[in-house]
Design a protein that fits this description.
By secondary structure, this protein is an alpha/beta fold. The protein has two domains: 2-97 and 284-301, NAD(P)-binding Rossmann-like Domain (Rossmann fold), CATH 3.40.50; 99-274, 3-Layer(aba) Sandwich (Rossmann fold). It contains twelve helices and twelve strands. A seven-stranded parallel β-sheet has the order 8-7-6-9-10-11-12. Helix 7 (152-163) links the parallel strand 6 and strand 7. It is elongated. The two termini are 32 Å apart. 42% of the residues are buried. Bound molecules: 2-keto-D-gluconic acid.
């Protein structure tokens, strides 16, 4: 059986399925990584990774017989793809199958933050309804939604947001062809022209801190920030400061820089919706992601082309 190194937690049903056809070695939190690699390293031909954790260049380069890294995620920022591809190692991810659920959560956030749904629920549960009515929320209909990154997920959110009467614009590094949505040349211009700013671009070093204090100030005191992409795309300290000082109105966040740690200051804020990276966490989507991880590995080791390779990054 082919030997695989598992560097991240994935659902048990994927582990069980893989274990029927592969030998899986647990490398999630190894007590003695060097000792383990000295023992099994030469046999490892594949790595099982996720959006939370993937192999760095050091690990990739120590596995001389590595052929493929299969990530249980659409985002591949946790894996050093450039190092892998430089060595001819294939990297696969799980696009498309999770687009609908991630877009649904982002659309939910777009409604939740301005309508103060999280706050309203806490208000009721705390028994405060008896003392009076909660303050008013803000309607989303007719508001301007700015999308940073109009890829698969950004476009799927745009389609949903149209139904809710939002006016859509975007900023993307790639040309998007003939779209009815207005494109802004810079993220700052987009933020300036938005009531709600959705972060929907790739993670990774190139996009670290892209949404900084100047972008948040351009969004302004009536603006909301939505992020279900990667925490590090937003300068988290700048976001906390902008929320604390009322320089933006609120935020809804599924991802954090340094998750699962979440800044205590954010947790204490009423005008912030917080969820623990659940955008793709449905039974249906997680099964589909698991199937795609399996299918990619199976295809590769059967000598066939993989289904969903990460395109060349360098
Ligand atoms: C997963 C993700 O939560 O697809 C991604 O990029 O971040 C998520 O779907 C993650 O891969 C699970 O570890």
């Amino acid at each position: 059986m082919v030997d695989l190194l598992q560097v991240s937690l994935v659902p048990p049903f994927l582990v069980e399925r893989l274990e029927q056809e592969f030998t899986l070695h647990d490398f999630i939190d190894p007590a003695d990584p060097d000792g383990l690699l000295a023992d099994i390293g030469p046999r490892i031909r594949g790595i099982l990774a996720s959006g939370m954790k993937g192999p760095n260049a050091d690990l990739i380069n120590r596995l001389e017989n590595l052929e493929i890294i299969a990530s249980f995620s659409v985002g591949f920022d946790s894996t050093d793809v450039v190092a892998a591809q430089a060595r001819g190692v294939i990297v696969t991810h799980t696009p498309d199958v999770l687009t609908g659920d991630v877009a649904d959560l982002a659309m939910t956030f777009i409604l939740m933050a301005p309508r103060r749904i999280g706050e309203a629920e806490r208000y009721l549960r705390a028994g405060r309804w008896r003392q009076g009515r909660m303050d008013l929320g803000t309607t989303v209909r007719g508001k301007r939604l700015g999308i940073l990154g109009l890829g698969r997920i950004g476009s799927a959110v745009a389609r949903r947001a149209e139904v809710f009467g939002l006016n859509i614009a975007y900023h993307d590094i790639k040309p998007m062809g003939d779209l009815t949505y207005r494109s802004y040349p810079t993220l700052r211009d987009l933020a300036d022209a938005s009531d709600i700013l959705l972060v929907s671009c790739e993670g990774g070093e190139a996009n670290r801190g892209l949404v900084d204090a100047t972008v948040l100030d351009a969004l302004g005191p009536a603006g909301f920030l939505i992020n279900a992409a990667r925490g590090a795309i937003v300068d988290q300290a700048a976001l906390v400061a902008a929320l604390r000082d009322g320089r933006i109105a609120g935020a809804a966040l599924d991802v954090f820089d340094g998750e699962p740690e979440v800044p205590a200051e954010l947790m204490a804020m009423e005008n912030v919706v917080l969820t623990p990276h659940i955008a793709s966490s449905t039974h249906e989507t997680r099964r589909a992601m698991a199937d795609l991880v399996y299918d990619n590995l199976r295809a590769h080791f059967d000598g066939k082309p993989v289904l969903t390779p990460v395109p060349p990054q360098a």
